[in-house]
Write a structure and sequence with these properties.
alpha/beta; 2 domains; 4-stranded mixed beta sheet; 4-stranded antiparallel beta sheet; 34% helix; globular
Length: 225
């Protein structure tokens, strides 16, 4: 599970009027094992394929055809030490972070070659930090941001702030554009970001400052502009 102070901070931000959204490449089960379901927060799974929106699970991009069963079988037989194959329902990811440096490209190439042999329709390839994944086409962190922003903007002017630490998060930065803040986390900083924080600890500090800027004396909430 995530540290209790992280969950408390997310719930506190939601409690003073922010729409707090956690967008992850993890499956629903995996993300909720780590994070639970923080009260008042929106959770987005599988790079945007599933969104827990006001308590209802929605899939804005529909149901893709199932991935060929032979693809998972062929990936499971890879004999490169350190490779981890993760089946996430409508997507499959191959992690090669634990593979020795000299064989990392071999592992990546093996995934792409296996995928080319099946050519599943309605899917696309996503690459991140030492991971390559096939996912339903149209579902991305950027499209999830756009979907959520469009709904929120119906009710009030919108100002967005997004934090990302992986190349898979660049879609979010593009979706935000000039409508808000884009914050890269970690080193080296991602392109497209206007701001940079060096570590998750600095993110926690920044969110804490944001929260306390919205709080009145003795912990009472002040009106949100």
């Amino acid at each position: 599970m995530a540290p209790p102070q992280v969950l408390s901070l997310l719930e506190a931000l939601a409690g003073v009027g922010y729409r707090v959204v956690v967008i992850s490449g993890r499956s629903r089960k995996s993300l909720e094992q780590v994070l639970g379901r923080p009260q008042g927060c929106t959770l987005v799974y599988l790079h945007g394929w599933e969104i827990l929106w006001d308590g209802e699970l929605v899939r804005p991009w529909g149901e893709p055809d199932p991935l060929p069963s032979g693809l998972l079988s062929s990936l499971s037989t890879l004999s490169i030490p350190g490779v981890v194959v993760e089946h996430k329902g409508p997507s499959i990811a191959l992690h090669y972070r634990l593979v020795e440096h000299a064989r990392k490209e071999e592992a990546r190439r093996a995934f792409l070659d296996a995928l080319a042999g099946y050519q599943p329709q309605g899917y696309e390839i996503l690459e991140g930090k030492e991971v390559v994944e096939v996912r339903p086409q149209g579902a991305s962190k950027g499209s999830a941001v756009a979907w959520i922003a469009e709904r929120l903007a119906r009710h009030s002017p919108l100002r967005l702030a997004v934090f990302g630490d992986d190349t898979a998060d660049l879609d979010m930065f593009r979706a935000v554009g000039k409508r808000g803040l884009t914050v890269a986390v970690g080193e080296p900083p991602l392109p497209l970001a206007r701001w940079w924080l060096r570590s998750p600890q600095e993110v926690h500090q920044a969110l804490g400052l944001l929260l306390h800027g919205m709080m009145g004396p003795r912990g009472h909430n002040t009106p949100i502009p």
